[in-house]
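FAQ

Q: What does a record look like?
A: Structure on top, sequence underneath. For example:
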């Protein structure tokens, strides 16, 4: 098989990207890694495949599903693990059998679809009883409305409450998390081993204000605890 080249398409994240976008994407997958150890996992809209490989480092098995055949072909060539495979398919017609996975990871996917309920119904179909969903979505208020920015690849974005309401229609237990990259400044003497404090321009507060992305954990069982998560560049 000839080597597949996956070129930037204006929307799909690729590992060669740097800066804020890389921090956002990697943080989500390393956070998800905490809840998939020893379990069968579906990464829906797996794209280039880097995130599925991160999950496969600790999971029992991972299947990455993406609608783009060139993406799954590339991922299969570049991320080879015995417990990892990639399949071409849609989020509204997931090519897996009923009740076949313990955890479903869905990052920045639902905004690319019009049929949100169709995707959620498929998630419920392939998820085992008491399985767990971890899903993210751009917060329309902060991502689109405030900057007056319109992503041409996004079909139907959601406000935070809409996203929460959608997931709660399908799961008995949900927990909402917020994600935002924020800057900080650190000053310390270079000739001293003393501990130092860090400061930001914001006063300490509960939660994350003006989140760019919403993340929801959902299940019909007890939810895993990921109360606080910070990732450095």
């Amino acid at each position: 098989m000839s080597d597949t080249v996956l070129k930037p398409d204006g929307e799909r994240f690729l590992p060669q990207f740097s800066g804020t976008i890389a921090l956002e994407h990697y943080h989500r997958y390393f956070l998800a890694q905490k809840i998939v150890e020893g379990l069968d996992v579906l990464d829906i809209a797996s794209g280039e495949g880097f995130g599925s490989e991160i999950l496969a480092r600790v999971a029992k098995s991972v299947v990455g599903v993406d609608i783009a055949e060139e993406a799954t072909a590339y991922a299969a060539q570049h991320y080879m693990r015995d417990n990892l495979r990639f399949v071409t398919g849609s989020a509204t017609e997931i090519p897996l059998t009923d009740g076949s996975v313990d955890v479903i990871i869905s990052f920045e996917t639902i905004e690319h679809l019009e049929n949100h309920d169709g995707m959620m119904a498929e998630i419920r179909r392939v998820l085992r009883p008491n399985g767990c969903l971890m899903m993210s979505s751009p917060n329309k208020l902060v991502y689109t409305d405030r900057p007056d920015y319109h992503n041409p690849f996004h079909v139907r974005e959601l406000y935070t409450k809409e996203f929460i309401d959608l997931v709660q229609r399908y799961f008995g237990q949900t927990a909402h998390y917020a994600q935002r990259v924020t800057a900080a400044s650190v000053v310390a003497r270079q000739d001293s081993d003393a501990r130092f404090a860090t400061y930001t321009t914001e006063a300490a507060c509960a939660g994350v204000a003006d989140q760019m992305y919403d993340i929801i954990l959902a299940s019909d069982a007890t939810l895993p605890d990921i109360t606080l998560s910070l990732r450095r560049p």
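Q: Is there anything notable about this one?
A: The domain at 20-219 is CATH 3.40.50.150 (Rossmann fold).
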